[in-house]
Amino acid sequence: MKYIIGLDDAGRGPVIGSMVLAGVLIKEGEETKLIELGAKDSKLLAPKKRKAIADALRKEYVYHAEITSPKEIDECDNLNTLEATKAAIIINKLSQTIKEEILAIVDCPSVNTREWGNLLQSMIIKKDQIKVKAEHKADFNYPVVSAASIIAKETREDEVEKLTKLIGNFGSGYPSDPYTKEFLEKNLDNEKVQEHIRHSWATVKALKSKGNQKKLF
To answer: pTM above 0.90?
Structure first.
């Protein structure tokens, strides 16, 4: 019997909060069951429906989610490399007790799918047993990656909810969100907020530069 692991991320672009990468393990042939549960690209699902499907997936399948903090993102040299590292952690964890062949399908974050796929393959412990397939739009084309997309998104939403209770309403956390921009402008120097901001993001750098210019006059 062959196994398949689907992987996808959520929260890669926000300026506030963590990034989540999730992996879902299925047996080959279970894709139809995933479709019956409603698995599709998380971006195509309404929040209430997405949550219900995520709950069903979590009960039915083995999965693992890696939460990457803003600090980890700020300190990494390359976000694509960091994501490959997190993907390898998930694959290695989900494959620990499996002796059969595994196909790991990843929604690739890099423009160069071949290079990124080779990088991920090099980080896998069971290299002879596990084959990596890194593709763009994998979350749309493969139900198992859609399932990972849904779990990643819901895990990210859970993290946002916890963070909102801790530091207040910051909107979606994305740089284009007016609520997020306003929150950053008001709380950039707030120590309670510091560890939850991605300081390496251009949005934050621009606000810091603007603040420093004001201090000069």
So the answer is: yes
